[in-house]
Amino acid sequence: MTVSPLLTAFVRFVAFAFCIAALPAAASEDSISDWLMRVEMAPDKVNFIGSFIYEHDGKMETMRVAHRAREDGFRQRLFSLTGSAREIIRDNESVWCFLPDKKIGVHESRKSSRNTFLQIRGEQIASLSGYYDFTLGEQERIADRPAQVIKVVARDKYRYGYRLWVDTETGLLLRTDMLDDGGNIIEKYMFVEISVGTRIDDSELEPRTAKESLTWFGIDAPAADAAADAPMAWDSASLPPGFMLSYSINRRG
């Protein structure tokens, strides 16, 4: 089956917000490292609820997200405001995607751990300086909040560049632009409205679509555990400098 582009895009957005903080040690300015460390830690500390746009492939979608951070982990609900009805519930352990228009749902166990990320060796991080340049830009306003601009410029054609807008108060990532090698925006996320530090009730984090109304994939599959442990069926014998396998997953069709 084909996984919803919204699920793929949002997971990439969250993963990027978490993983981009691996890059600052390659920068020449300690202040950039400080800013990006705040980006990494913000989702663990800050409650927020707001709406953002996602632009890609000449299309624009509008979505709303509620995020609650607690000592025992986070919980997050994302749902579409335009196009087909879609809804994603995410926490430390799982991702649930509800697609009521198609009468299907997708569930995956997908743990998010800071510990694994922070165990990256220093020499691995430092090696990124050979592939990216990092600079601080001006402060601008996103969703009526001051934001620090950070520019991440790829040094070769194998990598995308980025512009990041980081909330100066909380470290939340308010906007990201993904750039091609010509500096053109090929993908953009941007909050247009956000409330930070607000109380997030349980009702904001529960799905509006009844689970029993959907046909589910990826949950309680008989061979799920065996498939997860099975070796990958493909490999790459040649990769550009600096590329390596960091994560893999087996999905049953």
What can you see in these coordinates?
It contains 5 helices and 12 strands. The chain is globular, with a radius of gyration of 19 Å. The protein has a 12-stranded mixed β-sheet, with helices on one face. A hairpin with a 2-residue loop joins β7 (132-142) and β8 (145-154). The model is unreliable at 10-30, 112-125 and 220-224 (pLDDT under 50). The termini are close together. With 253 residues, it is an alpha+beta fold.
How are the SSEs placed, and which strands pair?
Elements: H1 5-19, H2 30-45, E1 48-56, E2 59-70, E3 73-80, E4 87-91, E5 94-99, E6 104-109, H3 114-118, H4 122-126, E7 132-142, E8 145-154, E9 161-167, E10 173-179, E11 185-196, E12 215-217, H5 224-229
Parallel strand pairs: 6-12
Antiparallel strand pairs: 1-2, 1-11, 2-3, 3-4, 4-5, 5-6, 7-8, 8-9, 9-10, 10-11
